[in-house]
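Repro:
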Amino acid sequence: MSARIEAELPVFAVVGRVNMGKSAVLATLLEIDDNQLIRVSPTPGETTCCQEHRLVFGERECVRFIDTPGFSRPIEAMRVIQQLHGEGPPGLDSLRRFVTSAGDDFQDEKRLLEPLLAGAGVLYVVDPTKPLRDDFLAEMEILRWTGRPRLALLNRRGETVCTGEEEWRSRLGGSFNLVRTFDAHRARYGERLRLLRGLLDIEEGHRGHLEETIRLVEDEWRCRREDAAERIMDFLTDALRLRVVESISERDKAVKSRRERKQQKLAQRYYRELAGLERHLFDHLLEIYRHHLLTAEASGEFAEIDLQCAETWRKWGLSRWQLAAVGAAAGGAAGLALDAATGGLTHGAGTVAGALGGGVGTWWMGGSLPDLKLSITAGIRLGDGTGRALEMGPPKTPNFPWVLLDGVLTRYQRMLARAHGRRDEETLAGGSEGFTRQFAAARRSLLGKWFAACLKQKNDARLEPQVVAELVTVLEEVEHGNTATPTS
């Protein structure tokens, strides 16, 4: 077994005291939020035997982790090993003798030593909020005797800096090749990647293998981000083009109460279908990022993105000045097209007029609440054979697409912040502040033109590649907790 482990791939045994968060660390590192695969529980002793977990890309296993039982009697085990060895520091031979000859009182210690004797490296998990007692020092000494590559992990569990952390670092530094901090309940992609790089730093024998694994992890994350950006663009396209249509009779038109009920029913249907589009988007995003304990809504309503709530329009979307600038750019583009069509005979007047018209229009409408567009269309053949229909949607305000985008981005940010080591179910809520107001002017201009085309039910194939690329950049900025600095 030793030759197989050392020759084929890097293997690391996750060891430590009972209830130090070993399984939670593995679950977060490998993005597994399923208790059927990795049991994470506050109950001590959930891991009673060695469990193998593989990091696989395609059909290829890249790294193997072994979740081991926690130490239960480290001081007594250390003394038995010393007695078996005699004078001087024990080594692998003494540890093997301990595993084969020690009694049933040391079942946990024997099980966790088996993969180390077979060639696995050590990932030692401790809780730095615990006092540094003699039993922890005994664990460190036993692991040092293995001679295997060893990384100690301070699992902070939500604490920023613990009082006794420096003492832990000092003692761990004498027994381990490397000491790192981690939070199994809060670690994001960057922290997970840093931990993998830490394993690379201690395991020289599999450097090439681990370097390739890290590259594969980075490539896969990039692909996820691109997939997410495309899904978000599809959602925005469908949402901005969404219209609901229902037949309307002459009596409906003539009787005010009937007409109002018809409009209210149609508005409810519009928001219901819009919520369905959003649910469909987040079903995909949660699948992309491997979350099974998250849901994207609390009820059948439009959840956190309540388009009829004034508060939503105050915290998300662009400011009036920003909307005016976007409207001016879109209007200017339309005027520029007019100038081009007239062969320059307008001497740029179309561009100027379009910019002024677009800017003034969005200024007056920018702060308004969503008032669904309503029109009666003739010549539409519906199920009841009537020729007139009531069409509703989308909201008239130019801030509508920006509010939609902010709603998606704030939830996306919270989804990425959710560590897979957690086992509580959670509803994915939007953040208090949006991102779009922090966009640079060039980004707002590009997205504004694309939004305008979608609202007019037009396809602009020239803009779509640029929009996807820009959304990928936006998601990366959200992931790192920043967006472009706004410009007026």
